[in-house]
Fold:
Amino acid sequence: MKKELTERDIDRIIEMAWEDRTPFEAIRFQFGISEQQTIEIMRREMKSSSFRMWRERVQGRKTKHAKLRNDEVDRFKCSRQRAITGNKISKR
Structure:
């Protein structure tokens, strides 16, 4: 890892990794860490049973790997997801 990750960064990485539709490439883009480094963070920060459940769920999953995704998907977040600014969810 290039920079020291804060606790807030680690929480966000775990959140992004847990989400089924957020690809590992989005985590790399935002935090500069590889898929393997993401897996290492998940292994270190989660209970072992939670980590195993997560690994089984994401291994080979099309939505977690940009190369396996449908070409029509070109964004990192759902179009219905609300924007978050200053830790507050904006109103529609």
